[in-house]
Amino acid sequence: xxxxxxxxxxxxxxxxxxxxxxxxxxxxxxxxxxxxxxxxxxxxxxxxxxxxxxxxxxxxxxxxxxxxxxxxxxxxxxxxxxxxxxxxxxxxxxxxxxxxxxxxxxxxxxxxxxxxxxxxxxxxxxxxxxxxxxxxxxxxxxxxxxxxxxxxxxxxxxxxxxxxxxxxxxxxxxxxxxxxxxxxxxxxxxxxxxxxxxxxxxxxxxxxxxxxxxxxxxxxxxxxxxxxxxxxxxxxxxxxxxxxxxxxxxxxxxxxxxxxxxxxxxxxxxxxxxxxxxxxxxxxxxxxxxxxxxxxxxxxxxxxxxxxxxxxxxxxxxxxxxxxxxxxxxxxxxxxxxxxxxxxxxxxx
Length: 349
What we know:
Blueprint: H1 3-19, H2 39-50, H3 55-67, H4 71-85, E1 90-95, H5 102-115, E2 119-124, E3 137-138, H6 139-143, H7 162-169, E4 170-176, H8 183-196, E5 213-218, H9 232-238, E6 258-259, H10 273-277, H11 284-287, H12 304-317, H13 338-348
Parallel strand pairs: 1-5, 1-6, 2-3, 2-4, 4-5
Family: Belongs to the helicase family.
Protein name: ATP-dependent DNA helicase
Organism: Arachis duranensis
């Protein structure tokens, strides 16, 4: 890339930033104005940004991480990498509750694909989760998903744009915090990839996302899609496992997910919603007596009555006497507390 091309790209970026504040480069006469650059140059810059890493270092990192990965993580890793490099296509859901090192797994997958000199698009549904991903972006930003999503919405990606070429070259798409947004977001991306992938040798209209390997992940027991004034049925209808895409999700050991750690599973789409929000064991209170019960366990109580029942049962099986601790909102009048001394002086004045 020549110095003049770099200069023009910088001017375009500055002009874009100024536009967000209601100004342009024309408001600063000493500054040069940006001229229209070739779309190929923009595409080249977008692709280069995603490949801006040292392959040798990345390969070593991938090898080191794989060496300490769990058996479940290695199994998921092998399954996904095979789908990527055998051009089989694939739609996976990697399930992992808290403390199962999901971010570790995303970084492992990204490092492996990057070590081959290929592109991974890491996105997340929330503006915080993407910060933990290599070159992470929010899904809305990366795929130009409308904020007010509907069943008929499509991604706002223009034909021939750099985003199109980036999606074509990407070997893998990783989407973290998947269950917390509407299924229409995934369906909009599926329709978008349907138009983009027609020119790709791996295009397959019979596969989800037209043959592009996509991995969703996180925990269904966290935040589900927020539907204003929506009923339970509305929330269930908007989740990703209610989408027509879910039937293509890789089925492993009879479950529609890969468990990174632990033995708690989420229900498949044909099970009732009550089974989704309840704990895996049908008789919660009976199983609490087991000493192994609280290893990697979480109880989801859909009503306050169940919360109270669980709390009362736990208190009943805890050994020892009951002790009452009182809280206080007043400042501790300690001699070393300067603030308390000032208050005392004011009160005594």
